[in-house]
């Protein structure tokens, strides 16, 4: 009998802790300093229906995640946790604070680094999944390799490919700027500028972007780059601005179309 009441008490304490976590996440959001991804996850865990799941996944695709990495490389040996199948899954976190808390709990010296959720989903090996907030059972969500594969399909189909959009992307060891010239069934067509940024830019002056690569030894501009959608999303695109697509920008695209060209990454 004692064990029965002890178990009931433990369950009640867990439920109360979960309720406090959920309340704090939603309160922070209402006060304007919350985390939309965490709020979307809380709403789904509360409602547990298809609409809330769709909202959570859409929010995930727009979010930054945090990894605990051993090296400075983009995916430099990230910390892993055990997945439901017993295999190692990448440990990802919804905020810098949660990543640092996990590093302290797990006694890791790994550095915290932000990465687009799109990058993570499209760069992961087909046999690897990831766990969001692995150290917090109340705000945790696991994506198996099969579910990650499904995410790739969902994101490819649902991503808002805005023509004329200038996006920040990751490529050749730095953040770059790329303009979306066209999108079709096979992929997207980009104009990749020579400008590089050490940190992801939050805005950009379109007039400052150039195709002149003469001052750079490591990167080059590309006037027209046909790329499969998965390749584009693996760069973690974030919309910075939108400008009209001009006829001269489409010159390379028209030549490619006349030649019935292919796509990089196909």
From TrEMBL:
It comes from Luteolibacter arcticus. It comes from the Bacteria. Residues 37-148 form the SseB protein N-terminal domain. This is SseB family protein.
